[in-house]
Amino acid sequence: MAGKAPRLNREHIRPGDRVCAAVSGGADSVAMLLLLHAENTLQKNALGVGLSAVHVHHGLRGQDADDDLEFVRELCLKLEVPLHVDRASVPERLAADANPARSETLEEAARILRYGIFERLIRDGHADCVLTAHTLDDQAETVVMKLLRGAWTEGLAGIYPAVAVDRAWPDSRGQIVRPLLAVRRAELLAYLEERGQAWRTDSTNSDVSFTRNRIRHSLLPILREYNPSVDQTLAHLAELARDEEARWQAELSRILPQVLLPGKPVRGGGRAVSTGAHGRAVAIEVERLKTMERATARRVLRAAVRQLGGALNFQQTERLLQLALGEAKSGRIEVSAGLAAQRSIREVRISMEDTRSMRSQDLRGQVS
Predict the structure, then answer these.
(1) H or E stretch including 175?
(2) What whole-number distance in Å separates Cα of residue 154 and Cα of residue 159?
(3) Record: fold of 18-248
(4) Could you report the per-residue pLDDT of 156-182, keeping only the tens digit for each?
(5) Domain boundaries, the chain
(6) pTM of the predicted model, to two decimals?
(7) Cβ neighbours of residue 282 under 8 Å, at least 6 residues apart?
(8) How far is CA 86 from CA 124, 131, 210, in A?
(9) Most buried one in 163, 232, 324, 363, CB count within 10 A?
């Protein structure tokens, strides 16, 4: 007797949507495609979507990558699912010197190119949403990786169940959706084995030179000795962090317009706002910051820097907070490359000298 199939989260999938499944050929994405296909052909409670698939060839792994593409082609042909094939060159991106400050890893470059293709599919009208096969295991690995790198709550939020390609779009269309985020990888493997469905294995998944693989194969097994349910615990932590972050974002949307002042004061009143390509600034009244709880003041300063195109780690945030509250020895500090802050009697002014040196943020930090 066949076991119960893993459950797709339908929350962000609506009847009538054009749904495009990202299929690499690996077990997780193959299982997702089969589940989508099966649920879309149910006689009762069917998904009712237009289903297609997308495969991205990253220009890596030579013949193995070519074989992955052929495998996905044959699977989609068997299921009668239309397939979009896109090619991207990760080596070319890494070799490009247009932005030497970017310093992307191979994983980051591949992800950026892949999600760029997903977004283009949506923007060009080929899909309302693109589905990726991230699992609860992926979520746990992501949270640990973010924690080790010193992430704040937005980082600990891990992988979001859905991310809007463009926040200005009025409804739930135009999203990257993860319908398997509550499903364990072992469930998907059992599902495929029970159906006799093959999948492709990426040899780089066992390469421990990649941080995620070291976490997957070395660190998490040790953590499971202390807590066998640590993966679920980490997924719960991510959910809590997402809710905390949503609450803070709502609060900051209310506070920031009241406290941020553009540019710097000029004699006779008013403020001068730089329009040059290499100089932007905001200021905050010192007395307003002093009335805030430290947690709120910290969030306000980080949000102010984010508006200038920058990002702060813990140490940088604390130095900026100490300056703003008059706890620093100096009245001016270099916060990071291109980012400076100066405190006067009335305000702390944060300026970005060259925003091009700051690293860009892809998909709001919510992607893996």
Answers:
(1) strand 175-177
(2) 10
(3) Rossmann fold (3.40.50)
(4) 999 999 998 876 665 557 899 999 999
(5) 18-248, 263-357
(6) 0.85
(7) 260, 261, 262, 263, 304, 307, 308, 349, 350
(8) 14, 16, 25
(9) 324
